Amino acid sequence: MNLLSLKYFIAVAESGSFTKAAERLFVSQPTLSRQIASLEDELGVQLLQRNKNSVLLTEAGRILLDEGHEILKRCDSLTERIRQTKLDVRGTLRIGYHGSFDNSLLGDALKALSSKHSYLDFSLVNCNFGELNRLLMEGDVDVIFTSAVCLHSMPNIEWARVQDNTLQVVVPSEHFLANKDAVWIRELASENFIMLERSAAPLIVDYVVDLCLRNGFSPNITRYVRDTQTGIYMVGAGKGVGFLFSQIPVHNFKNVKVLRIVDCDINFDIVVAHRTDNTNPLVPVFLSVLNSLCCQHPS
To answer: What's the pTM?
Structure first.
């Protein structure tokens, strides 16, 4: 019994008509009839009772229909498994990311990739923007998740946007601006600022300072911190105001209020980047999976 004859039989049995089954399968009715007759001859039983206006199943036909679906399903599964042995990729993909961001998309991509390619392994590095750039340029990682603004001066880099990310202001919850949802940069001119150390994110710090200068004031930076979480704690303690990305979750922090900046004109979106001369075959595989996820859940 071959699979083609079985598929033809199931189509006739489910359609209740040779004519309808032939149309569904895009074959001629005589071809379909010959396949069914050949199948009945091979099995030595009648599978169908042919009436003038319909086709009915015999007892043998009902058994074959019930089992036939499972046979085709198992054959399709086996075919896919065999194909996968050819398509399955092996090796290690080295990924750098910034731990302060909401990295759920990265987690979803790793899970999807592992499900599809069981022999693939990952190496993950969590570090600041400056370190991410260094690792990428020195070839110590294959791809990085970073902010678009950090890549403007880097040569031989390809990147694709994966998530929206805007610059916001975080103020103490009792601050006089805390009753607002959004502010203009110039409204912060008299504030004390808590800023990331420049070594942690030089381009971002420079862009933020430039944004203030273009709005008529030089920010009074009273405290530098090495990471965003420390900065948020300092803001909550009333030590000043700070800048915060929208992709950094703040639901675990109390005593602060996050405000949208009305006139910020800088692209801080989250991107995935890799070197154009990277030859790791896992890079395009990973980017393809990531792109599929972004299309399913556009940010």
So the answer is: 0.61
CATH of domain 91-164+269-296: 3.40.190.10
Strand pairing class (241-245; 192-196): parallel
Residue 85 burial (10 A CB sphere; 0-12, 13-18, 19+): exposed
Q: How is the chain split into domains, by residue range?
A: 3-87, 91-164+269-296, 167-261
Residue 63 in tokens:
């058994």
Q: What percent of the chain has pLDDT over 90?
A: 38
Q: CA-CA distance, 167 to 169, in Å (whole number)?
A: 7
Mean per-residue pLDDT over the chain, rounded: 87
Distance CA 273, CA 219 (A): 31
Q: CA of 148: how far to CAs of 116, 154, 161, 246, 297, in Å?
A: 29, 11, 8, 14, 20
Mean pLDDT of 202-229: 90
Say how many CA atoms lie within 13 Å of 215 toward its Cβ: 20
φ/ψ bin of 214: left (φ > 0), alpha (ψ from -120 to 50), beta (otherwise):
alpha
